[in-house]
Specification:
By secondary structure, the protein is an alpha/beta fold. The chain has helices at about 50-55, 80-90, 105-115, 120-130, 150-160, 180-195, 205-210, 230-255; strands at about 5-15, 20-30, 35-40, 65-70, 70, 90-95, 165-170, 200, 215-220, 220-230.
Length: about 260
């Protein structure tokens, strides 16, 4: 039996402020094998980022269990958890999160430096990774000397440099134009196909989700759909058409009234 890369069982997550509980995730069950490419969709506030924070071990569930690469996250010490996260996950954020005063080469090398790799070797691997995302020639530039799309490529190179089995990307194309977004998605698709890297990607755009093979839709902190992306996106489009027709007919009735 092979262990799932990700396995969430009845995961609940609440935020607390002034002892007032705000439940956000209401019992999520989700398993993912190595090599999968999953898109997560859902309306704003449905819990996508909260789920990603749990998946990324940046936050812990209020209840339920999470096993990452076969390790029960809830039973690990802080240090062990940080180690597991560094070995297993690469993050790509909407806002790129690059360090401004460093060359992009050093930005990409950073996760390796943290992991204790010596500087020379870290730079060599970073250079190689930048070349893979098509930026080998620009290694000495600083982030502000690059376009948004190029900066996101740097962020992807940084997420990949330590070769983690799982990439978590929360709205990675949210700040990019359509053309550049397609470019970034091509890079991610290639990584998934050629290197078997697993990807979980949050997006609100069906065109972007269509790059994934599997779709998970969240609604109010619960899984509403989990299955093939193609069928899921078709369902979503139908629902939206029905909603649109509904609001149009309401508008017409109001006009007539
Ligand atoms: P999404 O990414 O789908 O838009 P989030 O996971 O960011 O949704 O948020 C889900 C809900 O949890 C929202 O109602 C949000 O206001 C609330 N929330 C998110 N983060 C916090 C927090 N740190 N403290 C309190 N409430 C939060
Ligand atoms: Mg979010």
């Amino acid at each position: 039996m092979t262990t799932a890369l990700v396995e969430l069982r009845d995961v609940r997550k609440s935020y607390f402020s002034n002892r007032i509980e705000t439940p956000v995730l209401h019992g999520i069950n989700l398993a993912m094998q190595r090599g999968e490419f999953v898109a997560i969709m859902g309306q704003s506030g449905s819990g996508k980022s909260t789920l990603m924070n749990v998946l990324g071990c940046l936050d812990i569930p209020t209840s339920g269990s999470y096993a990452l690469a076969g390790e029960d996250v809830g039973s690990l010490s802080r240090a062990a958890l940080a180690g597991l996260r560094n070995r297993t996950i690469g993050f790509v954020f909407q806002s790129f999160n690059l360090l401004k005063r460093m060359s992009i080469l050093d930005n990409v090398a950073l996760p390796l430096i943290y992991a204790g790799v010596n500087r020379k070797q870290a730079r060599e691997r970073a250079q190689h990774q930048l070349a893979r995302v098509g930026l080998g020639e620009l290694a000495r530039r600083q982030p502000n000397q690059l376009s948004g799309g190029q900066q996101q490529r740097v962020a992807i190179a940084r997420a990949l440099v330590a070769d983690p089995p799982l990439i978590l990307a929360d709205e990675p194309t949210g700040n990019l134009d359509t053309r550049t977004s397609a470019d970034i998605m091509a890079v991610l698709t290639e990584l998934n196909r050629d290197r078997g890297q697993s990807i979980i990607l949050v997006t609100h755009e069906p065109d972007i989700a269509a790059f994934a093979r599997r779709l998970v839709r969240l609604k109010d902190g619960l899984v509403l759909y989990d299955g093939p992306a193609r069928e899921g996106l078709r369902e979503l489009a139908q629902e939206e058409a029905v909603n649109l027709a509904g609001s149009l007919s309401t508008a017409t009735t109001e006009e007539q009234a």
